[in-house]
Write a structure and sequence with these properties.
Blueprint: H1 7-17, H2 33-52, H3 55-68, H4 74-78, E1 124-127, E2 133-136, E3 139-140, H5 149-159, E4 166-167, H6 168-175, H7 181-199, E5 205-208, E6 211-214, E7 219-221, H8 222-233, H9 241-253, H10 266-292, H11 296-309, H12 314-326, H13 330-348, H14 354-365
Parallel strand pairs: 1-7
Antiparallel strand pairs: 1-2, 2-3, 4-6, 5-6
Length: 367
């Protein structure tokens, strides 16, 4: 029978454990500061899960204790109170005392227990435009395990903040909208812990004043770079060559819409549409630059790529038709018009606007 522990009982057991000098059942090897803190965090998280009745998840976390301390066994982990065996083995969990509060959580470390910085830092690259990809030290992360779903959703939400901190309450409400406050906060603590382990870099996630953010010094994010460059280009005159060169480079970052092909969540929709508009505005301004200089081939290539990524961008169809007209490709322009009609009908159930119809009629009259 599984035994649920109160926070005070848990704190007392950990306090007793912290006074012992070496691990039993682990070859007598001392545990590092980072290892002791990981053990403590796992205990508190498992206790929170037990209070929620999530026995299976708590058991998974306790199994991670075995991985943290080489030479331990599942029976040793069972001694931490999850499988009815007493707490006799917990007294050997630490090499020397670590200050700890009975109410400490993953998101609020005890004073004086800051984790050491990783050296060297891991390379973490995250792509959100055109899909979602996570690459750690050059290896693409492949998800498919159910317990990773919430940590990855948490990561996506942090990407949308642009590196700015998000409150724990806001994150919990969005990720677990049907849970009460305590359950949501406890679930968030578990997700934070698992995301840190997934990234393999404790300091990639920064928690301060009950707010969480990704560290831009640890994580390279295509979304953040695109937004920053697009904001800067908004103040550069379209006619300048500097604008064209930089805009063409920035548009290469936009491989597709935000979290394309991912399971849609309500909190994704508004940011996705906002980024789409930023992207289309940059396309419009770069196309204006090309058209002003009579560089119709470059403009046509830009517009063709745009409608491939966004088949519902009606204004871009019009600009593409005009470019094709300028280069004498009237048959292609008609095909572009027909494609526009089809996409708008299938995607939105509407017909082209009067302005698009006028462009098409102009093409027919000059054929």
């Amino acid at each position: 029978m599984v035994r649920s522990l109160s926070g005070h009982a848990l704190g007392a057991q950990v306090a007793r454990a912290s006074r012992v000098e070496r691990l039993s059942g682990a070859g007598g090897a001392p545990v590092s500061l980072e290892g002791r803190l990981d053990l403590l965090k796992l205990i508190y998280t498992a206790s929170a899960l037990l209070r929620q009745g999530e026995v299976s998840s708590a058991g998974q976390l306790l199994d991670e204790v075995c991985a943290l301390v080489p030479g331990t066994s599942r029976r040793w982990a069972a001694g931490w109170g999850l499988r009815g065996i007493g707490w006799r083995d917990v007294r050997a969990c630490a090499a020397r005392p670590v200050p700890v509060s009975a109410d400490a959580t993953i998101m609020d470390r005890p004073a004086g227990c800051e984790l050491p910085r990783e050296a060297p830092a891991r390379s973490i690259s995250i792509y959100a435009l055109g899909g979602f990809e996570l690459i750690i030290d050059g290896v693409r992360f492949s998800s498919g395990v159910k317990p990773q779903r919430k940590p990855l959703e948490l990561l996506k939400m942090l990407l949308l903040s642009g590196g700015e901190p998000l409150g724990a309450v806001e994150l919990a409400d969005k990720l677990w909208p049907d849970s009460d406050g305590d359950t949501g906060r406890n679930s968030l603590q578990v997700a934070v812990h698992r995301l840190r382990r997934l990234l393999g870099c404790e300091t990639a996630l920064v928690m301060q004043d009950r707010k969480l953010r990704l560290d831009p010094k640890r994580c390279s994010v295509d979304l953040w770079l695109f937004e920053r460059e697009a904001r800067q280009l908004a103040h550069v005159p379209v006619a300048r060559m500097e604008f064209a060169l930089r805009a063409a480079h920035v548009l290469q970052l936009y491989r597709g819409h935000l979290f394309a092909h991912e399971s849609e969540q309500p909190w994704m929709l508004a940011p996705r549409e906002r980024l789409r508009r930023v992207w289309l505005d940059l396309v419009r301004r770069l196309g204006q630059h090309y058209e002003m200089r009579g560089e119709w081939a470059q403009a046509r290539e830009l517009y063709e790529r745009t409608v491939d990524l966004d088949p519902l961008a009606e204004e871009t169809y019009r600009r593409l038709m005009l470019c094709q007209q300028k280069t004498g490709e009237r048959a292609e322009a008609v095909h572009t018009y027909l494609r526009c009609c089809e996409q708008l009908d299938v995607g939105l159930g509407v017909k082209p606007s009067a302005e698009t119809e006028r462009v098409y009629q102009t093409l027919r009259s000059t054929a």
